[in-house]
Design brief:
This protein is an alpha+beta fold and 448 residues long. It has helices at 7-25, 37-50, 61-86, 184-196, 202-212, 220-228, 239-253, 259-277, 281-298, 305-319, 327-350, 358-380, 387-410, 418-439, and strands at residues 89-90, 98-105, 110-112, 115-127, 132-144, 154-161, 168-171, 178-181, 382-384, 444-446. It has 3 domains: 3-86, no CATH class; 90-182, Beta Barrel (OB fold (Dihydrolipoamide Acetyltransferase, E2P)); 190-441, no CATH class. It is built from 14 helices and 10 strands. Strand 3 and strand 4 form a beta hairpin. Helix 2 runs antiparallel to helix 3 and helix 12 (358-380) crosses helix 13 (387-410). It starts with 6 loop residues before the first helix and ends with a strand.
């Protein structure tokens, strides 16, 4: 059965094309409740017309046509919703008169030296005379750093818009952000980070980035080394990190639960983890794929890898339409698609000179790089020719580093173990930095 014979693949393809077309033409329309019904129509039509067993693998003809139609509807209505929400709705005063804005953070704050960048969904604006007006627009704010801010926090900022700065709001140095409200999940994240990473150190900054996606404490030189070596994806929460966590949990729960029960428990844990760290696009893709795979097992059915990828893409469009067109999301789905399509042919080609586990590692890493190479050059104008090899070398080191880090967090109440664990983490950190810096010196393609 080929790719185009799959209903889910047809729907995912048409949905992606509709997203791209809608964003190019900047369609603005208030879909209200109707756009929410599209995913239900997607699965509802299939269920009613063909039966529940076709939800995971379908035939050609009408199935393919139905997938194209419903996928296109989902893509167009979702991109319309995005453009509608991003359309500025602001009246009442000139922008140069605004001295205070109030809104909700769209994602975690990113520290830049003594300041922090906040992406804000503005709800209200106020001038220096105290005149207040409702508003609805997004802006980037650069404000003094006084602590960590999380997605969902409602804050008030004082400052001014930068003249001809593309809508950038510059916070006053003597007026730090005022936290008006912090949701439960953000409060839990703040508590966990404060207790798990109360110590300081470069190795703990890397562990914080790998476990929670927070890169504020990372050395700039390390980030450059990862980027030049073609392994910057390791610093972004993705399927690799989910795989490390899943393997760790399965080892811990192995003696206690049956395999299927373990998968269900791991799925619940991953959902909680997702809610805590935030909806990073590549992380969402990995967790959705694992969840759909678990549901298929509970139903007693096997699901093809490309169907699995397509279903996760459609659910991503429904749950997080804003992130679908991000670089992270596009590269994540392209890399996994390249692994699914190219790994087997690469294994057959290299079988005579390599053996497992090196054969599988090379085919997977090389398949991902081949698939993402054109996009990487287009987005970043830089392609590390040996990034696939650097990923193979770094993967076991990162796995051990995260395992030891998780273990140190779990046994934090036993002080006599902490020096040994911290020493091991520092040794692994040194090895990771050495490998990244070594591969950063390897040949690369650099576009002007």
């Amino acid at each position: 059965m080929t790719l185009l014979q799959r209903f889910s693949a047809a729907a995912a393809l048409s949905c992606g094309i509709a997203y791209a077309a809608g964003s190019c033409f900047t369609l603005i329309f208030s879909p209200d409740i109707f756009w929410i019904t599209i995913p239900f129509l997607y699965y509802g039509f299939v269920f009613l017309l063909f039966g529940p067993h076709h939800l995971f693998r379908l035939k050609l003809s009408k199935d393919f046509l139905l997938g194209l139609i419903l996928g296109s509807c989902l893509g167009l209505f979702s991109i319309c919703k995005i453009n509608y929400e991003h359309a500025n709705c602001y009246h009442g005063m000139e922008i140069k008169q605004v001295r205070s804005v109030e809104g909700t953070l769209q994602q975690d704050g990113s520290r830049k030296g003594t300041r922090v960048v906040l992406l804000l969904g503005v709800h209200a604006v106020e001038d220096r005379m105290g005149n207040r007006h409702s508003a609805r627009f997004n802006l980037a704010a650069l404000v003094p750093y006084t602590g960590k801010y999380f997605a969902g926090d409602r804050v008030r900022l004082q400052g001014h818009f930068v003249p001809d700065g593309g809508g950038i709001f510059f916070g006053d140095a003597n007026c730090p952000p005022v936290l008006l409200y912090r949701p439960v999940l953000a409060s839990i994240r703040s508590y966990v980070l404060h207790n798990a990473f109360h110590q300081k150190g470069e190795h703990l900054a890397l562990l914080e980035a790998l476990c929670f996606g927070i890169k504020d404490g990372l050395e700039e030189e390390l980030g450059i080394a990862f980027r030049k070596s073609g392994t910057s994806h390791i610093l972004a929460l993705s399927g690799m990190h989910v795989g490390i966590l899943v393997l760790f949990l399965q080892v811990v729960m192995g003696p206690l639960f049956k395999p299927l029960t373990r998968k269900v428990i791991v799925s619940v844990f991953l959902i909680v983890y997702w809610l805590l760290v935030g909806p990073f696009p590549s992380l969402v893709r990995a967790i959705l794929m694992y969840g759909i795979y678990t549901i298929a097992l509970l139903m007693g059915r096997k699901i093809h890898s490309l169907d699995l990828l397509s279903h996760s893409f459609l659910l991503s469009c429904f749950l997080f339409p804003h992130s679908v067109l991000s670089y992270s999301s596009i590269l994540s789905y392209t890399a996994v698609g390249g692994i699914f399509i190219l790994s087997q042919p690469l294994q057959r080609r290299f079988r005579s000179i390599l053996f497992d586990p090196f054969l599988s590692a090379v085919s997977v890493s090389l398949g991902a790089q081949i698939a993402t190479a054109p996009l990487t050059l287009y987005f970043f104008s830089h392609l590390a020719l040996f990034g696939w090899l650097a990923s193979i070398v770094l993967s076991p080191l990162i796995t051990l580093f995260m395992w030891m880090g998780l273990l140190s967090i779990m046994v934090g109440g036993f002080p006599f173990l902490n020096p040994y664990l911290q020493g091991t983490l520092e040794f692994l950190y040194t090895a990771i930095v050495y490998v990244a810096e070594t591969f950063a010196k390897f040949p690369a393609i650099q576009l002007p």
